[in-house]
Write a structure and sequence with these properties.
0% strand; mainly alpha; elongated; 157 residues
Length: 157
């Protein structure tokens, strides 16, 4: 249960950070730097496209983190994902923002391919499942871990 809590906290933080950046921070900074709406509007739109792309890549990273960092099995990871995202999906103010996080920019590009209301949650879930098969290892950290294990084994013998 403790591992699921940490994973939920990480997922909520990543999702919340992207929501704040996309809906509040990036438009605010762009409007400060470019007060002319004709210049600011395309920048806000392309920033939203980049934020959506990075959010979808982050979903792959969360899937990898759930398996390799938090040690969650497929059932626990799925329960954590759906529990959090369905809870987010039913909160009126947050639900629209969450759906627009990956959806608005992609809808502008592929306007002829509408997704059902919970379609983006399914896309994010599939990306997290894909991420479970990816493991990124730092070679330096991997060498030090192997050295520590070898030292423990030699001390135990």
């Amino acid at each position: 249960m403790r591992l699921i809590g940490r994973f939920l906290l990480e997922t909520a933080f990543v999702t919340g950070a992207f929501l704040v950046l996309k809906t509040w921070f990036f438009p605010l900074v762009i409007n400060w730097w470019f007060p002319d709406p004709r210049m600011a509007e395309p920048l806000v739109e392309w920033t939203a496209v980049l934020a959506a792309t990075l959010f979808l890549i982050a979903q792959i990273g969360l899937g990898s983190s759930g398996k390799h960092q938090h040690g969650l099995g497929p059932l626990h990871a799925a329960a954590a994902f759906w529990g959090l995202h369905l809870a987010i999906g039913f909160v009126p103010g947050i639900a629209a923002s969450w759906q627009s996080l990956p959806g608005d920019p992609v809808a502008r590009i592929f306007s002829d391919m509408p997704l059902p209301p919970f379609g983006w949650m399914m896309v994010c879930f599939l990306l997290q499942l894909l991420g479970r098969g990816i493991r990124i290892v730092d070679p330096e950290a991997d060498r030090s871990i192997r050295a520590k294990r070898a030292l423990r084994k030699s001390e135990a013998s």
